[in-house]
Amino acid sequence: MKYKILAIDDDPDILKVLKANLELNNFIVETASNCKEAEDRLNDGLPELIILDLILPDCDGIEFCRKIRKEYNIPVIMLTARDRVSDKVIGLESGADDYIVKPFETLELIARIKACLRRYRTTEDSVLRAGDITVDYASRAVTVKGKEIYLTPKEFDFLVLLMENKGKVLTRNFIKKSLWKSSQIYSWSRVIDVHIQHLRKKIEDDPANPEYIITIPGVGYKFVEKGSE
User: Fold this and answer.
1) Are strands 4-8 and 49-52 parallel, antiparallel or unpaired?
2) Angle between helices 191-203 and 153-164 (to 10 degrees)
3) For the chain, which domains are there?
4) φ and ψ at 98, to 5 degrees?
């Protein structure tokens, strides 16, 4: 299923970059440069997610977010140059599901989008599969070859991050930013390696020779379909 995203920003270059990168990741993208255009797009058909700039020429992004939240059950990610903690708090309190500061990394934005969509998915959309592994978002259940395995909450989130980015090399820094707050993990910590070891023991036939979670030396990790590498 392709998800439709509405990107609202008054900067045409930002909209161009967003549209190109999101479409490369299999999303359908509509754009609007102001609140009036955004309302017209919403009247034509609701998207599955909205990316909203805080500063728009014809309205306040915070107020527009509040309006969206009152009228629709659609996840909103705020994308803005404002990086003060107070701005983030106001944005989140207005109903935004997430908050990303410009300039942004495309891979991080895609991960945040998928995380938001995952929280809003219906039962029919709630299963992720790769090889012998099945992940049920709704129940947070994981099965390997039809047998359910136990994962801790962080292991579950780690596996989902890897599977949703199948075939892509995820750097250690990206993994850290996606799964832990900056205050929770030190640069020298081996917590990422420990979680990888635990996941391999639970999903791999031979953890010493993994077929799903591949190490990219000096960079990070990549999830692949079993037997494709």
Assistant:
1) parallel
2) 80
3) 4-120 (3.40.50.2300), 152-223 (1.10.10.10)
4) -155, 170
Tell me which H or E stretch contains 7: strand 4-8
Q: Give yes or no for a contact between 192 and 175, defined as CB atoms under 8 angstroms apart.
A: yes
Residue 153 burial (CB count, 10 A) = 8
Rounded Cα gap, residues 79 and 40, in angstroms: 20
Which is nearest to 64 in space by CA: 119, 106, 9, 110?
Answer: 9
Predicted confidence (pLDDT) per residue in 90-149, tens digit: 656 667 888 888 888 888 899 889 888 877 765 445 788 888 999 988 778 899 998 999
Element housing 21 (H / E): helix 12-24
